UniProtKB/TrEMBL annotation:
InterPro entries: ATPase_AAA_core, P-loop_NTPase. Coiled coil: none annotated. It comes from Agrobacterium cavarae. Residues 48-359 form the ATPase AAA-type core domain. PANTHER family: ATPASE AAA-TYPE CORE DOMAIN-CONTAINING PROTEIN (PTHR40396:SF1), ATPASE-LIKE PROTEIN (PTHR40396). This is ATPase AAA-type core domain-containing protein. It comes from the Bacteria.
Length: 409
């Protein structure tokens, strides 16, 4: 489970923002809203992280930062031209030459090898702990030039000091460890490109531990527009090849009562056409005739199901856009243990404006973003604010007591 995100000098975030979501073991949890950061840990993390704030406060920036880290781990080796995609520094003179920094912390199997991983997959008990991944990118004249440092560290049982898994410096030199051995892969250190991560590069050439980590990163699913828009044509093509997802989608559409009784695909010269059968209507309706809300739900559905099926992370920007306020808490509840859907402790990160959802969230699940008069975003959990457990989050938030609301006048 991902429990910490750190971001510095990235879009509207100038100064280091460290979002720590760890929940004390004494906090009551009758609905199964929290999961241990690793198997057997006392410290927990919310399965749902809802980010609130005014327009342009930094909500999307936090989600983009998480997407950028995962994309660098997973796909950076695929980039064939210099530079980086999806990165901008903070827009002041000083930040033009300050590095952009990211870090995430999460739990999992430590001292990871293919043998230990296979034992865990077979149901054996193996050592667990926490990981910290750090990525620093050099900025020159406001342009991202190269990775200046990268590191993966671990804490067995989540205790003691961070132990090196590997470290990379500005010259591309790599220090390995028994867990992440360079034996048989030394030649890769000489060809490591300045905008490719160690994990992505080594996984491409079958480094066993790098492959495991990159495969885990493939369980993170992002719907963040407009940087990577999951457009209509893409969702229709995806659904056409996923009959199991379509079956489950039809069940949900029927259950939430949008009037859709069935879906089918019709082949055309321009690709598959998605048609909907509605109660009381004689002719099937095409995709573009469906309501904005129905289409928004359908486009979101594969991200949510993919995370729930793999125990991964679904990240949805503007999740409340065109979604009825009664549907939104229902979709959030899919990630709680009581729903029976989230057997693998998947996590949902979302941004939204719907204040009514706050009545359905605990303070541990709420993150606030706000921007100061210098255009700098600041993000914090409600756990960092003096908030009573029985407080009315809806009223307090709209009153401005938590911050993150627009100032009018």
């Amino acid at each position: 489970m991902l429990y910490k995100l750190e971001v510095e000098n990235f879009f509207s975030i100038r100064d280091l923002q460290a979002l720590d979501l760890t929940v004390d073991g004494k906090v009551p949890d009758p609905e199964g809203r929290y999961a241990p950061i690793f198997e057997g840990a006392d410290v927990r993390v919310p399965k749902v992280v809802a980010i609130y704030g005014a327009n342009a406060s930094g909500k999307t920036t936090m989600l983009r930062a998480l997407e950028f880290i995962v994309t660098m781990i997973r796909d950076s080796v695929m980039r064939t031209v210099p530079g980086f995609a999806g990165i901008e520094r903070f827009n002041d003179e000083e930040s033009a030459d300050r590095p952009t920094r990211f870090a995430i912390e999460l739990g999992g199997i430590v001292n990871l090898t293919p043998e230990i991983f296979q034992r865990a997959m077979n149901g054996e008990k193996v050592e667990q702990g926490t990981y910290r991944y750090e990525l620093e990118i050099e900025m020159k004249g406001g342009v991202a030039t190269r990775i200046s440092s990268e590191a993966l560290r671990q804490k067995p049982n989540g205790q003691g000091k961070w132990q090196r898994v590997y470290e990379r410096d500005a010259e591309g030199r790599i220090k390995d460890s028994r867990t992440f051995s360079l034996s048989g892969f030394q030649h890769l250190t000489k060809t490591l490109v300045g905008n490719h991560t160690v994990l992505s590069s080594f996984a491409k050439f079958q480094h066993p531990v790098a492959q495991i980590v990159v495969d885990a990163a493939r369980k993170a699913f992002f719907q963040i527009e407009p940087v990577h828009s999951f457009v209509d044509r893409e969702v229709i093509d995806y659904l056409k090849n996923q009959p199991n997802v379509v079956h489950r989608l039809q069940e949900e559409l029927s259950r939430i009562d949008v009037g859709v009784e069935g879906m089918r695909f019709q082949n055309t010269d321009n690709g598959p056409l998605l048609l909907f059968k509605h109660a009381g209507l004689a002719v099937e309706m095409p995709w573009l005739m469906e309501s904005h809300g129905t289409r928004a739900f359908i486009k979101m559905f594969p991200f949510l199901m993919s995370a729930l099926d793999t125990g991964g992370i679904a990240t949805i920007d503007g999740m409340d856009t065109a979604i009825h306020p009664n549907m939104l808490p229902e979709m959030v509840r899919w990630f709680y243990a009581v729903s029976g859907r989230n057997k693998l402790d998947a996590q949902l990160w979302l941004s939204c404006h719907s204040a009514s959802l706050l009545d359905d969230l605990n303070k541990e699940e709420i993150v606030i973003c706000e921007k100061d008069r210098q255009g700098r975003s600041h993000c914090y959990s409600l756990m960092d604010v003096k908030v009573r457990r029985d407080e009315n989050h809806y009223r307090k938030y709209l009153s401005g007591a938590y911050g993150g609301v627009p100032h009018l006048g």
